[in-house]
């Protein structure tokens, strides 16, 4: 055996440690602090990068998860946070100083856009938002004081991609750090660090956990960048992941590759079904050959997630009736768990390029045939006519 282990191997063998009596799953170190026999022992442990003194800085259960996530992403180290926004905030704040400028893709996760475009203004940090699908638009937004390029590929609302190789090369040539939100694809299907990114962030609440029972986030990157972030944004802002949460997410991680294959298969079937309907105007899913960036998706990803959206006219009430009529798709805004979800996607304030009504679907682990039947009956209940073509197509 040679080369890098695959994701299945990593998640099956990352935490084996003889110090824990051969346990295949690391015990939960649900302790706020660690005690010592002598002052010298405590000082020695405190000076170790991996030392365990106080769980706000390091905890064995959390560090085990962090090492697994770093290996999955191909990074040198990782730090976990209490939420995805905790991780995003840490990655952004560790990359900038007062007077700096940020360029962010205009379809990034809403709270990330608010952090970058609104909250940071009070600290004399300016931002511009650019069309992430247009490399020239990103380049034209850069300034001499730009220090951070924030990307999300694919985006989780309209599923547009950025050319990560081109974007990161352009940023590196100008001394600009790149942060990529990789939540949609997961490290199973995409590794932005290998494409040139400096830091990768994830909402672990989504696919990594996979069971809708834990919240968390992670930042992955080179050891030096993670060490700097650990000593400031992690311990000073305090968005620390509890050990019990880390154990739940690590358990979910064991089946991540298997679940991602299932999500992909189900989403492909559902997307193809939706695309076959005359009253559906557009299906947004990078795995479809009809997606305008499908070739780019194939070039920088090895697979596709379970989240997609579609448009079917501009009658909001009709779309709401469709969502209300669904049985196996539950109404909810998050995604990444075992369950299928549906939500009505509004006109997206702050995204001038996207003023439309759409339905966003997360395809869970259920049988695709069952989900397609559910969609079909909901369309009928809402009054969609298979003989009618979408006028906005």
Automatic annotation (TrEMBL):
Keyword entries, A-Z: Aminotransferase, Pyridoxal phosphate, Transferase
Record has Metal-binding as a keyword: no
One Pfam family from the record: Cys_Met_Meta_PP
InterPro entries xref list: Cys/Met-Metab_PyrdxlP-dep_enz (IPR000277), PyrdxlP-dep_Trfase (IPR015424), PyrdxlP-dep_Trfase_major (IPR015421), PyrdxlP-dep_Trfase_small (IPR015422)
Descriptive protein name: homocysteine desulfhydrase
Origin superkingdom: Bacteria
Cofactor: pyridoxal 5'-phosphate
Family affiliation: Belongs to the trans-sulfuration enzymes family.
UniProt source species: Cohnella xylanilytica
Coiled-coil segments: none
Enzyme class (EC, first level): lyase
Catalyses which reaction(s): L-methionine + H2O = methanethiol + 2-oxobutanoate + NH4(+); L-homocysteine + H2O = 2-oxobutanoate + hydrogen sulfide + NH4(+) + H(+)
Gene Ontology CC terms, in alphabetical order: cytoplasm
Phylogenetic lineage: Bacteria, Bacillati, Bacillota, Bacilli, Bacillales
């Amino acid at each position: 055996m040679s080369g890098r282990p695959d994701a299945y191997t990593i998640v099956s063998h990352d935490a084996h440690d003889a110090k824990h009596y051969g346990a295949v799953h690391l015990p939960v170190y649900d302790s706020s602090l660690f005690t010592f026999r002598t002052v010298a022992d405590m000082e020695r442990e405190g000076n170790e990068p991996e030392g365990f003194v106080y769980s706000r800085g390091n905890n064995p259960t959390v560090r085990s998860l962090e090492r697994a996530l770093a290996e999955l992403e191909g990074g040198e180290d990782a730090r976990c946070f209490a939420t995805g926004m905790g991780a995003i905030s840490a990655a952004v704040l560790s990359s900038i100083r007062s007077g700096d400028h940020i360029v962010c893709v205009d379809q990034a996760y809403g709270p990330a856009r608010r952090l970058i475009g609104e909250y940071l203004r009070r600290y004399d940090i300016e931002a511009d938002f650019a069309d992430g699908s247009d490399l020239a638009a990103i380049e034209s937004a850069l300034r001499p004081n730009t220090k951070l390029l924030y990307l999300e590929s694919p985006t989780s609302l309209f599923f547009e991609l950025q050319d990560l190789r081109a974007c990161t090369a352009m940023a590196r040539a100008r001394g600009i750090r790149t942060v990529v939100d990789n939540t949609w694809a997961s490290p199973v299907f995409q590794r932005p660090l290998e494409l040139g990114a400096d830091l990768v962030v994830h909402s672990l609440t989504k696919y990594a956990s996979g069971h809708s029972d834990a919240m968390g986030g992670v930042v992955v990157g080179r050891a030096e960048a993670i060490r700097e972030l650990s000593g400031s944004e992690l311990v000073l802002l305090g968005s620390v992941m509890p050990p019990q949460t880390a154990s739940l997410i690590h358990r979910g991680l064991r089946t991540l590759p298997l679940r991602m294959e299932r999500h992909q298969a189900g989403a492909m079937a559902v997307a193809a079904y939706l695309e076959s309907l005359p009253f559906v105007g557009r299906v947004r899913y990078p795995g479809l050959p009809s997606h305008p960036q499908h070739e780019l998706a194939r070039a920088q990803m090895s697979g596709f997630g379970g989240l997609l959206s579609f448009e079917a006219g501009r009658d909001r009430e009709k779309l709401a009736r469709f969502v209300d009529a669904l049985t196996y798709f539950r109404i909810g805004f998050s995604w990444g768990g075992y369950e299928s979800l549906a939500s009505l996607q509004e006109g997206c304030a702050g995204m001038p390029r996207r003023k439309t009504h759409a339905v966003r679907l997360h395809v869970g682990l259920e049988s695709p045939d069952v989900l397609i039947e559910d969609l079909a009956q909901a369309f009928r209940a809402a009054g969609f006519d298979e003989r009618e073509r979408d006028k906005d197509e």
